[in-house]
């Protein structure tokens, strides 16, 4: 083992905050990971990690070494990718995280087409509506929808994305349509969100308007909120790609169109040190092209 290997083991242990997690990620034994980190500490003459029976803790010097080691490993990987990708077809494994509804409604057809186009690529796709830690959890790329948090990740826009307020014709017949966003307080609402506090966003005279909402049914999956709206249970606010088939089929209609907020975006995000990755670039290009073909649904 050389110094770069020991750095890689140490960084993986800090990312996972356990020897077991690092061993699983690297395909090594827990004992080997522990032994190599101990050897690294001996060669440096400092304690990098504090071990307890339950968890690891990083010392102050360990944190400094971790930041430097990660930058070195990122530079090495970027250099390798820059050289090895020249003139080659995309190949290798790609770990992808994407929102549940986007995955089931769009990636389910796009991914097979991508794999057919690039036979040397394999994909591990995880559908989850939580915001994953791309680097810490070992993903290569993630699909994100809406406003992005500030981060060091590279973000590429692959499609615009509209949010619409919609109801079933049956609900409209029984309850009428809200005329302004404030009227929503007098209607039965079907919030889609991942926290106890959910807000819907509108625009009035070019100014953003936020409406806190609650309802009989709050779900963390847009397709369930859509189906509840189709059943006439209330008003919902969802991305167009989730409700497009229902709108085209007349099972849902939009309301509050004059207050629709400006479009946001669907992004592919990935770590800075993966900019030279041929397979990530191919995936981003393919997804952008596929979204362009399906543009009427965004």
Automatic annotation (TrEMBL):
GO biological process, one term: DNA-templated transcription
Transmembrane parts of this sequence: none
UniProt key word Transcription: yes
Gene3D superfamilies: 3.40.190.290, Winged helix-like DNA-binding domain superfamily/Winged helix DNA-binding domain
Source organism, top-level taxon: Bacteria
Stated name of the protein: D-malate degradation protein R
Pfam families reported in the protein's UniProt record: HTH_1, LysR_substrate
GO molecular function: DNA-binding transcription factor activity; sequence-specific DNA binding
Keyword terms of this UniProt record: DNA-binding, Transcription, Transcription regulation
Domain HTH lysR-type positions: 1-59
KW Coiled coil (keyword) present: no
Similarity-based family: Belongs to the LysR transcriptional regulatory family.
